[in-house]
Design goal:
Strand order of the largest sheet: 4-5-9-10-11
Structural class: alpha/beta
CATH class: Alpha Beta
Largest sheet: 5 strands, parallel
Strand content: 15-25%
GO molecular function: mannan endo-1,4-beta-mannosidase activity
GO cellular component, one term: extracellular region
CATH topology: TIM Barrel
Organism: Roridomyces roridus
Bound molecules: 2-acetamido-2-deoxy-beta-D-glucopyranose
Enzyme class: hydrolase
Catalytic activity: Random hydrolysis of (1->4)-beta-D-mannosidic linkages in mannans, galactomannans and glucomannans
Number of strands: 16
Number of domains: 1
Length: 405
């Protein structure tokens, strides 16, 4: 039912949207038309999944069986990390544990690993994605334990996270990596879109400086510069931020709310106007964002908050005339929160589908993985346990079939 509804909504919107002049892309490349995604001239509506752990697997059979499961469940787009970096002191351990790594940092610079523990693994993931007709969103770095490696190595002893967005050496180093990844895969229609950074914020493991504050436009400037850079390398693939979708609203009612007051760094409405950001993305984790309000008996409703967050983003994307993807969401559980996740997920998903979204829950879970007998540490604390993919802390597997079905 949801799919039919989405389909008819798509038809209506493509009739009414002003036919924006759009560069024509090669056959098989997904592109945008107004507020829709489009593939070979037809609307492309989808439900997909996240899986940061897939390129960390060492067994091609396990990667393939995961794509088989995704395909059976109707996944058409999947999002994963296009980065995995270590520093030189971790190399010996990485070799011993068969860890996947693409960059090794030493003395302020990184070297690329294109070998069997390196980009060959990402090549394999993209190859198998293509076999199952699943397209891939690749993210170039991460606000959490990703860009901090650039900061630590290029400006040792830095006290602020946001130096990443403004230091010319940092930008050059990031762009050198982006160029490596884009040039490697830019002819492939399996790439759905490039993503500049997962969850860019003014702060990360380090705090934000006084130069990254509401109104400074630090992130918007970085988004513009990097999306223009990617576009200069690749005229055809879509580009998006990877951000959480924070707003910068001046309404005093939101003045103390981190998701709305611009303090995080993003300005969702403005960022959407940048010419080389092709569609909008945002994330949704109300429990972790409002821990002080979320306790049994609280008057804070996780469900209602999520529905509003969905509506606000839908309105902004409609205004900007660009497609919209709710690209991460999830609930912790079970037991210590007042509301029941089996009712909240369908409520959120229905609202997202009714308001013309594509959606990617966090995250896809696989069972029956066989490598190393089904038990292996794949990165730091993330492990395969009895054949199950990493559980990402307390965030349990999304009941995926139910979301799509
Ligand atoms: C390491 O991973 C590769 C696949 O990338 C695999 O062929 C090899 O057997 C693995 N080595 C060990 C010691 O598990
Ligand atoms: C290397 O990485 C580890 C683990 O992420 C970190 O604790 C350490 O500080 C890093 N070393 C340098 C020189 O950045
Ligand atoms: C909900 O609870 C908070 C404190 O926990 C209180 O400040 C607020 O006024 C309450 N809102 C309503 C509508 O009862
Ligand atoms: C949660 O919802 C399910 C389905 O509606 C219901 O069967 C279950 O009893 C609910 N659990 C709680 C703790 O309310």
């Amino acid at each position: 039912m949801q799919k039919m509804k989405l389909f008819w909504l798509s038809c209506l919107l493509s009739l009414t949207a002003a036919a924006a002049p759009k560069k024509s892309v090669p056959p098989g490349f997904v592109t945008t038309r107004g507020t829709e995604f489009e593939l070979d001239g037809s609307p492309f509506a989808f439900v997909g999944a996240n899986s940061y752990w897939l390129p960390l697997l060492t067994s091609l059979d396990d990667v393939e069986s995961t794509f088989q499961q995704m395909s059976l469940q109707g996944v058409k787009v999947f999002r994963t990390w296009g980065f995995n970096a270590i520093n030189g002191s971790e190399l010996a351990g990485a070799l011993e544990s068969n860890l996947t790594y693409y960059q090794v940092w030493n003395n302020g610079d990184w070297t690329l690993n294109e070998g069997p523990q390196g980009l060959e693994r990402l090549d394999n993931v993209l190859h198998l994605a293509s076999k199952y007709d699943i397209r891939v969103i690749l993210t170039f770095t991460n606000n959490w334990q990703g860009m901090e490696l650039y900061v630590d190595h290029i400006t040792p002893g830095a006290s602020f996270h946001d130096v990443f967005y403004t230091d010319p050496n940092m930008i050059a180093s990031y762009q050198r990596y982006v160029k490596t990844i884009v040039n490697r895969y830019k002819s492939s229609s399996t790439i759905f879109a490039w993503e500049l950074m997962n969850e860019a914020r003014c702060l990360g493991d380090l705090p934000a400086s006084p130069a990254c504050v509401p109104g400074s436009g630090t992130l918007a400037k970085w988004y513009k510069e990097q999306s223009d850079f990617v576009r200069s390398l690749d005229p055809f693939h879509m580009i998006t931020t990877g951000g959480e979708g924070h707003f910068y609203w001046k309404d005093p009612a939101f003045a103390s709310d981190y998701n709305f007051n611009g303090q995080a760094g993003e300005d969702f409405d403005f960022d959407l106007t940048l010419p080389n950001l092709d569609f909008a993305v945002y994330h949704m984790y109300p429990q972790t964002w409002y821990p002080q309000l979320d306790f049994p008996g609280s008057n804070f409703s996780i469900e209602a908050w999520g529905l509003e967050w969905i509506d606000y983003h839908a309105a902004a994307a409609t205004k900007a005339g660009k497609p919209l993807l709710l690209e991460e969401f999830g609930l912790l559980g079970p037991s210590f929160y007042a509301e029941n996740k089996t009712t909240i997920y369908p409520s959120w998903v229905n609202r997202a589908l009714e308001t013309n979204h594509a959606i990617l829950p966090w995250q896809f879970g696989a069972l029956g993985l066989s490598e190393s007998g089904g038990n292996r540490l794949i990165k730091y604390a993330d492990a395969l346990i009895d054949g199950a993919s990493p559980n990402d802390g307390e965030r349990k597997f999304v009941p995926f079939a139910r979301l799509i079905g």
